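STRUCTURE:
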């Protein structure tokens, strides 16, 4: 019929073979297409994480780094002076640097020679890394009237050889680090810290300073490790009003004055001290308290090997003294001196005067030029295990003393000597039958009050 339209849809499925599957529509077919990855995923590395670095020792953030041209002294002065605080200045080796002005290590600044190591860490993550400066170790020769380096707060000086100048390093600041330096031929003191605190010094070698090797004055909390001083025209190490410190592995030799000198200081520990030869005392302690020396060797001193004067609460342990004079104690109290060996003293092995409330334990005194032990004007002392061999004079002389206990001791008088015990105005001596004197060899006592000792097993050695 006119204008009549009919529509129909016919689906024909032609079987090409057995099939148990179902029809997959176009949308689903997209899911079985082969995966094509974006090439960027494979070739683009993740962006590195960048964070500020801080020095592990001071905790200050490093803001810049500068490498000084090798051997250029004026550039070292100029570029270091222009660098901001908290910078790292790298000084490479090669031709020695010649400087005429003091180089200032500003707040937070690190000045380090080639090959020196600086431990840094990330400010945010705390990850640590040992940065080693490029180049070789530098030598810096100073002709200036001041110090070669002046160290301000939180600064560090690392891995350099310094020579000349008034001082090698001067620190009038807090939290200064000095590591792996040599300092030679200064006109005055080699290393000076004045009115400072939290000082860390390690691996410092000093030769031929014009005055002291190390001078610390009004310093609080110091740690010094592996320090060697040779040829000082005055004292090797001089501590004046130092409060709180640990000194480990200190060696002093060829000084014209004292080796290790402590004045008006407190709360110090010294472990591993070697002194000698010197033209004065090996260890000199005056007007100080709460000191401990453990493990020391003193040799070839012109004066006392050890002098303790006007001090209290001092402990000396495990030491040897081979010197012109032995150990001298004056005007001191509350001392403990144990496990000491004194040899070849031209005077007494142990001299105690005007002192009290102290103990002396396990001593060996060999070949004293005068008395083995001399005690005068003192009281409340206990001497235990005092072994004296071949003194020129008495084994022990006690003059104007009170409350002295001498026990478990031996005196070998066969080679020389006068009396084993010489008592002169001595009172309240000895102890009970079990703790009083036990001499391996006893000859005689002279003077007054000798009967107040109880002698046990006197022995049969030949007396002079």
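SEQUENCE:
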């Amino acid at each position: 019929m006119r204008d009549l339209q009919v529509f129909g849809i016919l689906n024909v499925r032609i079987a090409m073979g057995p099939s148990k599957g179902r029809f997959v529509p176009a949308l689903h077919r997209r899911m079985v297409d082969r995966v094509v990855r974006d090439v960027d995923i494979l070739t683009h590395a993740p962006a590195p994480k960048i964070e500020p670095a801080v020095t592990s020792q001071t905790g200050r953030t490093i803001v810049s780094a500068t490498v000084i041209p090798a051997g250029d002294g004026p550039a070292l002065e100029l570029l270091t002076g222009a660098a901001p605080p908290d910078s790292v200045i790298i000084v490479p080796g090669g031709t020695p640097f010649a400087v005429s002005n003091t180089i200032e290590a500003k707040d937070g600044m690190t000045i380090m020679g080639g090959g020196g190591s600086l431990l840094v860490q990330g400010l945010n993550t705390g990850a640590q890394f040992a940065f080693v400066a490029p180049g070789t170790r530098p030598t810096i020769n100073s002709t200036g009237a001041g110090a070669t380096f002046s160290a301000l707060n939180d600064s560090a000086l690392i891995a350099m050889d310094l020579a000349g100048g008034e001082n090698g390093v001067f620190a009038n600041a807090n939290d200064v680090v000095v590591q792996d330096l040599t300092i030679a031929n200064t006109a005055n003191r080699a290393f000076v810290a004045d009115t400072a605190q939290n000082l860390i010094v390690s691996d410092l070698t000093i030769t031929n300073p014009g005055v002291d090797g190390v001078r610390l004055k009004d310093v609080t909390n110091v740690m010094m490790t592996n320090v060697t001083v040779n040829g000082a025209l005055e004292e090797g190490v001089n501590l004046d009003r130092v409060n709180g410190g640990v000194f480990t592995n200190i060696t002093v030799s060829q000084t014209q004055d004292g080796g290790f000198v402590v004045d008006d200081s407190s709360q110090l520990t010294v472990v591993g001290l070697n002194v000698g030869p010197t033209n004065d005392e090996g260890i000199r302690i005056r007007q100080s308290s709460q000191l401990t020396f453990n493990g020391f060797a003193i040799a070839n001193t012109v004066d006392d090997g050890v002098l303790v004067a006007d001090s209290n609460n001092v402990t000396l342990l495990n030491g040897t003294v081979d010197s012109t004079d032995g150990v001298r104690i004056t005007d001191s109290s509350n001392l403990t001196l144990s496990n000491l060996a004194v040899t070849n003293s031209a005077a007494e092995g142990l001299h105690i005067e005007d002192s009290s409330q102290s103990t002396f334990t396990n001593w060996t005194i060999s070949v004293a030029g005068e008395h083995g032990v001399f005690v005068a004007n003192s009281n409340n002392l206990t001497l235990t295990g005092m072994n004296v061999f071949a003194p020129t004079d008495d084994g022990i002389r006690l003059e104007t003393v009170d409350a002295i206990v001498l026990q478990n001791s031996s005196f070998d008088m066969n080679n020389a000597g006068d009396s084993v015990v010489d008592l002169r105005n001595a009172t309240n001596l000895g102890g009970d039958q079990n703790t009083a004197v036990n001499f391996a060899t006893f000859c005689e006592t002279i003077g007054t009050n000798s009967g107040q000792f109880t002698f046990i097993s006197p022995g049969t050695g030949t007396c002079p």
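REMARK: Residues 431-464 have pLDDT under 50 and may be disordered.
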